[in-house]
Specification:
2 domains, Alpha-Beta Plaits, 424 residues, Aminopeptidase, six-stranded mixed sheet, 11 helices, single chain, 21 strands, five-stranded antiparallel sheet, alpha+beta
Length: 424
C-alpha cells in the first residue's frame, strides 16, 4: 500500500504534458458564471476519452459529476469550473484566453482560480484505476461545479438537495459524503476553515428638489454618508478570531436616484460585503447594521440580498446571499487524512492553515455540516488578477494527492466530532 502511494508522484508526472494541454484548452474557453457549457463539454470529453469513471452525469444546474468506485463510503473532490471576467484586456501582458505556458507555469484567466485543479482531478481517477486504488471500500465522486464565482456554494446546495438527498446521482445513491476535498487555490497547503460572508443592502429615502435650493429637499446622499461612517466604525467592534481572522464589513458599492444632475437625490443605496468569523451569525450581522443606522439617526431599509440568476441550463435556483463560516480542528479525520496523504505521497511536511477568500465549502460544511478540507493548486493571491496562473509542479502533486486521498481517508479512525461553524 505505502509503496504504491510513494510512486504516485512519478506516475502522475507521466501525465504532465496531457494535463498541461487539457488545462490550456480549458483556459481558452471563456466560462464566467452562467456561461460554463463549453468548459463542461470539454471536461466531459476528456473524461470519456480516458474511460476510467463508472458514471458521468450532468445535473439540472449544469454541474458535471463523475463517479469512480462502488463502495459504501462516499468521498468527494470538488472544483468549480467558472471564472471571473478579464476586466480591462489592456491590463494583461498576454491574451488571457491564450493558455500561455512556460517552463514553470500555465497562465490565463482561470489557470489558477480554479481550472488548474480540473486536470489533476480527472487524471487522479486514471491513477486510481491504473494503480489498483479503486476497491470495494469507497466511492469517489468528483464534482465540476458551476456558478461559484457569482454565488459560492449554490452548486452544492443543488447537489445536496436535488441530488444526494433524493438519490438522483448515478452511482451514488441517497447518501452524503463523509468528506469533501475542496480544490480551490491553496498553494498545495492543507486548509481547514474559512470565514463566512454575507451581502447586505441598505437603502435610505430623501426628498428631491431643485439643486439651486437644496434646503428645500432632504438629500439622501448626505443621509447615507452618516450611515457609511457608522458602518466603517463597526469594524472596531466585530468579533476576532486568531485562526480564521476577524469579522469585517465594507461598503463595496454606492448608488443614488435623482431626477437630474441639477436635483437633490431622493434615494441612496449601499452594498455591504460582510465577512463572518467564528461566533458571528446571520441575524447578528443584520442587527449590527440596523443598529449602525439608528446610531446615525437615519431611518433605513436593511436587507439580506438574494441570488436568482439563470444557469447555462436555463434553471434559476434562488438562494440567500449568506455563506456560513466553517472550521475543523487538525484532529478531524478529513484533515488528518490530508496530512497523511501529503506526507506519504509528496514526501514533504505539509503546511496547515485557512483560506482568506470564500469557497464552495460555505455550503458543503457551513450549511450542511459535511466535513471539508482544502487542497488545491495555485496561490490565493493570484486569483482574479492578471497574474492568474498555476505552477506545473502543482498539477502533478495534486493529481497524486487526489488519487491517494480516498484510500487514506478510509484508513482513518472515525470520529463523531465534525468541527464548528455557523449553520443558522
Amino acid at each position: 500500500m505505502k509503496t504504491s502511494m510513494e510512486h504516485l508522484s512519478n506516475a502522475a508526472a507521466k501525465h504532465r504534458d496531457a494535463m498541461i494541454e487539457f488545462l490550456r484548452d480549458l483556459v481558452r474557453i471563456p466560462s464566467t458564471s452562467g456561461q460554463e457549457k463549453g468548459v463542461i463539454d470539454r471536461i466531459r470529453a476528456e473524461i470519456q476519452r480516458l474511460g476510467v469513471f463508472d458514471h458521468v452525469h450532468v445535473d439540472g444546474l449544469g454541474n458535471l459529476i463523475a463517479v469512480i468506485g462502488n463502495g459504501p463510503r462516499l468521498i468527494a473532490i470538488d472544483a468549480h469550473v467558472d471564472t471571473v471576467g478579464v476586466g480591462d484586456p489592456r491590463s494583461w501582458s498576454f491574451d488571457p484566453f491564450q493558455g500561455k505556458v512556460d517552463d514553470k507555469k500555465v497562465w490565463g484567466r482561470g489557470a489558477g482560480d480554479q481550472e488548474g485543479a480540473i486536470p489533476p482531478m480527472v487524471y487522479a481517477a486514471k491513477l486510481m484505476r491504473d494503480h489498483g486504488l479503486v476497491d470495494s471500500e469507497f466511492t469517489c465522486m468528483m464534482t465540476f461545479t458551476v456558478m461559484e464565482e457569482d454565488c459560492d456554494g449554490l452548486c452544492w446546495q443543488y447537489i445536496v438537495r436535488e441530488g444526494l438527498d433524493k438519490g438522483t446521482i448515478p452511482g451514488v445513491g441517497k447518501r452524503r459524503p463523509e468528506a469533501v476535498v475542496v480544490t480551490d487555490s491553496t498553494n498545495c497547503r492543507i486548509l481547514r476553515g474559512q470565514r463566512g460572508r454575507m451581502e447586505i443592502g441598505v437603502r435610505v429615502s430623501g426628498r428631491s428638489c431643485h439643486g439651486s435650493m437644496p434646503e428645500k429637499g432632504d438629500n439622501a446622499i448626505y443621509k447615507m454618508t452618516r450611515v457609511v461612517r457608522e458602518i466603517e466604525g463597526l469594524n472596531k467592534r466585530l468579533k476576532k478570531d486568531r485562526f480564521l481572522g476577524n469579522g469585517t464589513i465594507a461598503v463595496t458599492y454606492i448608488d443614488c436616484k435623482t431626477p437630474s444632475l441639477c436635483a437633490i437625490p431622493d434615494a441612496a443605496y449601499i452594498h455591504l460585503d460582510r465577512r463572518l468569523t467564528t461566533g458571528e451569525t446571520k441575524a447578528g450581522a443584520i442587527a449590527q447594521v440596523k443598529a449602525a443606522c439608528r446610531k446615525a439617526g437615519i431611518k433605513a431599509e436593511v436587507e439580506l440580498l438574494r441570488y436568482a440568476e439563470k444557469a447555462y441550463t436555463g434553471l434559476v435556483y434562488p438562494t440567500e446571499k449568506y455563506f456560513p463560516t466553517w472550521v475543523y480542528p487538525e484532529t478531524a479525520p478529513q484533515v488528518r487524512a490530508a496530512v497523511e496523504t501529503h506526507r506519504d505521497v509528496l514526501r514533504r511536511r505539509p503546511q496547515v492553515g485557512r483560506w482568506t477568500f470564500s469557497t464552495n465549502a460555505v455550503s458543503i460544511a457551513g450549511m450542511f455540516g459535511i466535513p471539508c478540507v482544502g487542497f488545491g493548486p495555485a496561490a490565493e493571491e493570484t486569483a482574479h488578477t492578471v497574474n492568474d496562473s498555476v505552477p506545473i509542479r502543482h498539477l502533478i502533486d495534486c493529481a497524486a494527492f487526489y488519487a491517494a486521498y480516498p484510500k487514506l481517508f478510509c484508513a482513518q479512525p472515525r470520529a463523531k466530532h465534525t468541527g464548528r461553524g455557523s449553520r443558522r
